[in-house]
Amino acid sequence: MSVVQLIRKQKPRIANRYFKGEIDGADFTAKVFDIKKNEDRWTLTASKVDDDLVKHQIQLVFPASFEKRIYKLEEHLDDIRLTYSTNSLLDPILRYGASGLIDLTTVDPANTHVAGALQNILTRDDGNPVSTITALFDLS
């Protein structure tokens, strides 16, 4: 094996992180990501800034004990917190997920890596308009 072949084999892979989806039919392609795991919880945060300089953010928090599988949000409201918020001065938003599916396809604590999907997440009917959130994500 030549030196060139050896170097090519050892080339590190760059992770493609993404959080892409829709909120009420509007594009939500996050540009900023954060993933944290402490002893008992995962926290995934994805945000974007729109043309009016309003920050839109989705945050998903769930127990570190969760494994690869599909979770019904309405059955785990004590364990899972999903929020959608904006920092708009004219129309701030803070909405909490109430139902829908969270499909965790990868949960890798050793590499701080989580991938999956949010499927038809509906926010709480608490007097604010109900939003629908759908997304695919792969964060590490």
Strand residue percentage = over 45%
Overall spatial form: globular
Low-confidence stretches: 10-14
Instruction: Report, as a whole number of angstroms, the end-to-end distance.
Output: 33 Å
What is the total number of structural domains? 1
Q: What radius of gyration results from the CA coordinates?
A: 17 Å
H/E series = HEEEEEEEEEE
In total, the number of strands is 10
Mean pLDDT: 91
Q: Main β-sheet: number of strands, strand sense, barrel status?
A: 10 strands, antiparallel
Total number of helices = 1
| Coarse structural class | mainly beta
Give the fraction of residues assigned to helices. under 10%
Q: Main traits of this protein?
A:
mainly beta; 140 residues; 10-stranded antiparallel β-sheet; globular
General description of the model:
With 140 residues, this protein is mostly beta strands. The protein has one domain (22-139). The protein has one helix and ten strands, in the order H-E-E-E-E-E-E-E-E-E-E. A hairpin with a 2-residue loop joins strand 1 (18-23) and strand 2 (26-29). The longest helix has 7 residues, at 3-9. It is globular and about 40 Å long. The model is unreliable at 10-14 (pLDDT under 50).
